[in-house]
Design a protein that fits this description.
The complex is a heterodimer. By secondary structure, chain A is of the alpha+beta class. Chain A has 2 domains: 2-77, Roll (Ubiquitin-like (UB roll)); 86-164, [2Fe-2S]-binding domain (DNA polymerase, domain 1). Helix content of chain A is 29%, strand content 15%. Chain A has helices at residues 23-30, 86-93, 103-116, 122-128, 140-151; strands spanning 2-8, 11-17, 49-52, 55-58, 71-73. In chain A, α2 crosses α5. Chain A is globular, with a radius of gyration of 15 Å. The model of chain A is unreliable at 160-170 (pLDDT under 50). By secondary structure, chain B is α+β, with helices and mostly antiparallel strands. Chain B folds into 3 domains: 7-54; 66-176, Uridine Diphospho-n-acetylenolpyruvylglucosamine Reductase, domain 3 (2-Layer Sandwich); 184-285, Enolase-like, domain 1, CATH 3.30.390. In chain B, 34% of the residues lie in helices and 25% in strands. Chain B contains 12 helices and 14 strands. Chain B has helices at 14-26, 40-45, 81-86, 88-93, 95-101, 107-112, 115-121, 127-134, 152-155, 229-235, 242-249, 266-285, and strands at 7-9, 31-34, 53-56, 66-68, 72-76, 138-143, 146-151, 156-158, 161-162, 169-176, 182-188, 198-207, 210-219, 226-227. Chain B has a 5-stranded antiparallel β-sheet. A 4-stranded antiparallel β-sheet of chain B has the order 11-12-13-14. In chain B, α11 (242-249) packs antiparallel against α12. Chain B is globular and about 60 Å long. The model of chain B has no long low-confidence stretch (mean pLDDT 96). Classes of the chains: A alpha+beta, B alpha+beta. Chains A and B meet through β4, α3 and α4 of A and α2 and α6 of B. The complex binds flavin-adenine dinucleotide and FE2/S2 (inorganic) cluster (2 copies).
Chain lengths: 170, 288
Amino acid sequence: MSRISVTVDGTTYEDDVEPRLLLVHYLRDRLGLTGTPVGCDTGNCGACTVDVSGASVKSCSMLAVQADGAEVTTIQGLAADGRWHPLQRAFHEEHGLQCGYCTPGMILAARDLLRANPHPTAEEVRHGLEGNLCRCTGYQNIVRAVLAAADAGAGTGADSGADTGGEAAI
Amino acid sequence: MIPAAFDYVRPESVGEAVGALAGAEAAGSEAKVLAGGQSLLPLLRMRLAFPDLVVDVGRIPGLRGVRDDGDALLIGAMTTHHEVVADPLVRRHAGLLAAATATVADPAVRHLGTLGGSLAHADPAADLPAVALALDAELTAVGPRGRRTVPAREFFTDYLTTALEPGELLTGIRVPKYDGWGFRYEKFSRTAQAWALVGVAAAVRCAGGRIAEARIGLTSMGPTPVRAAAVEAALAGAQAAEEPVAEAASAAAEGTRPAADLSGSAAYRAHLARVLTRRAVLAAAGPA
Ligand SMILES: Cc1cc2nc3c(=O)[nH]c(=O)nc-3n(C[C@H](O)[C@H](O)[C@H](O)COP(=O)(O)OP(=O)(O)OC[C@H]3O[C@@H](n4cnc5c(N)ncnc54)[C@H](O)[C@@H]3O)c2cc1C
Ligand code: FES
Ligand code: FES
């Protein structure tokens, strides 16, 4: 067992974990944060993408012990004060999801992209989301949603951005 | 898929890491170095690797970052792909490495995966071994018997096999500065985020409309990365124009042993090598 201390969505946890425990299993099975799904389990689909200390990573491809001391943000930590993150709102409004399985990873990857490039072109959005697969939408509305979120200021300033309403459903 | 159980240590210095590896060897148990985990974690999960001990070197200070060393850059083994792509020194003096690294996987994998991990893993389909070979990089390793430097030409010995000995840690990569050279990494893959079916890393120095010197590394054209030596020889002194370059590039598959697999036959890979070499050299020799 290894002792780790991780802050997830603003709450700090101290836990003894087996070194082989994957970060995604730690989030889902130990902390009960099932908003982060496992898709392929091979590092290819990006469904499990979370933010670790300011960078998107695939949580199925990282050990929980590697996240010791880190600050993790999952899809469940994006809404603030009962308000959706602009990306959540844009995915909702632009119909950027169908089954929704890829959505948490898409949104965390898009958040990473917009942080580095607040006003990307459609081409840059496609390139930036290369590691995230969607089996439903055909990507068009996902790209549209990310561009709409960028217009709403998702990549600039605080995460709560220019959001103007909407209930946090998750 | 859950990895088999292993013990885990996170040493804080190279010496401590080498000690942990040596301790495991003395005890007759298997140890694996963990860098970014982007190749090792899949292996652990599929239980293709099941070490007794994992030595996480990801946080050793001093193994990360890029330093100017006069006529070369010193890149710490734990420098992530993301950091390599963004690094101003790499972009300025070793543009080929930055360009090729930008094609590796996707942003999330690049945030964790490291240059040293990619070279130590030595996947013949990986992009960076061919680049290290083309740029005549030197790799520094530290082991129980001290420090040594291995030229890239001697580093990649077989499929997933390098000159690193058990217990040795790759600590850094020395890349000569290629100021004034043109470069291009041509990568052919079937889908956006896929591995190279074939990749061609080209660095070209031109003088007065002629190619003075060319260095070309091939990805996925055999069990190890290879230099397209025949093409390099044919290009020396050639005019930097379509026809002579195409003529030289027709030798790109000479002496290679490309695999045949689900993604393509050996003949198809040979064809790709010729086409991509022509494109890469022309782009590298073209106006910057
Ligand atoms: C979805 C996906 C797509 C990918 N696509 C590409 C691609 O297109 N092109 C490409 O080139 N790569 C690709 N990769 C691989 C990626 O580049 C890996 O990051 C890299 O191969 C390994 O680096 P790492 O730091 O993660 O090493 P790890 O996975 O931690 O280690 C890899 C191996 O090297 C050994 N090792 C690591 N560091 C050292 C060291 N300092 N000294 C001694 N031994 C060491 C480890 O023991 C292990 O055996 C992809 C990976 C994924 C998951
Ligand atoms: S579940 Fe992690 S990348 Fe698919
Ligand atoms: S919405 Fe179903 S996988 Fe993307």
